[in-house]
Amino acid sequence: MTATYTFDVFSSLDGYGAARADWTGYWGKQGPELLDHRLALYGAEQRMVFGANTYRAFADMLASSTDDSDVRDPWVTRMRNLPATVVSTTLEGPLDWPDATVVSGDAVDVVARLKEESDVPLRSHGSLSMNRALMAAGLVDRLQVTLFPVITARTGLDPIFQGAADFDLELLENRTLDGHIQELVYRPTLH
Questions:
Q1: Whole-angstrom distance, CA of residue 138 vs CA of residue 133
Q2: Please, which residues have CB within 8 angstroms of residue 81's CB and are 6 or more apart in sequence?
Q3: Could you give the C-alpha distances from 144 to 86, 94, 141, 147, 148, in angstroms and in order?
C-alpha cells in the first residue's frame, strides 16, 4: 500500500504563498482556531518532505526567531520535530533539523520511492516548484490550501501555481477557521 502524499500550502486569494511590504506571517489573519487546527494536523504521525529552498527558508526563519515570535507557533515546532526528508542535489547533511535526512535525486523519483516505502503519510508544507512537479507526475493525493482573506496583487511573492499544469480538483473537505480563513482539501488530477 502506498503512503498518502499531501501538498499543504498557505495562499492569498490571488494565489500567492507570501507577500512583502508590511504583511506579517499568516497575513496577520491567524486566530486560535487556525493555530489549534494546524497543531492537530501536525500531531499525527507523518513524514515531512521538503525541497532544498523551503528547507533553507524554514531553517533560516527558525534560527533567526525567538521563542515568543509567530514563527515558533506550536504547530511549527511540532512540524520541525517530525521526521523529514529533504530532496536536494546541493545540500549535504547533517542538517539543522532534529530528524532530517537529505536525499539526492529527482523529486519525482524520490517521492515515488517514499510513497512505496513509508509506513506513515507524507506531507509537504510549501516547496512550490517541487510540488508542482509532483502534481504533474500524479504523486500528490491531497492538495490542502489554506486560503487567507487577502489580495496581494502588488506585494505578492511565490505564485503557488505559476507554470503548473492544468488540474481538475475534487473537493474532499472544507472548513472555515476563525470565521474568515478557508481550508480546502482537494484530490488533484491532470486535466
A1: 9
A2: 98, 99
A3: 20, 30, 10, 9, 13
Task: Kindly report whether the peptide bond that precedes residue 94 is cis, defined as omega within 30 degrees of 0.
Answer: yes
Hey, what's the cell of 147? Answer: 486560503
CB 148 within 8 A of CB 113: no
Nearest to 189 by CA among 146, 147, 145, 137: 137
**145 beta partners:** 9, 184
pLDDT tens for each residue of 102-128: 999 999 999 999 999 999 999 999 999
Domains and their CATH numbers in the chain: 5-190 (3.40.430.10)
Per the structure block, which three cell numbers stand in for 25? Answer: 506571517
Q: Give Cα separations from 64 to 53, 54, 58, 67, 77 (angstroms).
A: 17, 15, 10, 10, 14
Look up the pTM and report it. Answer: 0.94
19 band by pLDDT with thresholds 50, 70 and 90 = very high
C-alpha cell at 47: 513524514
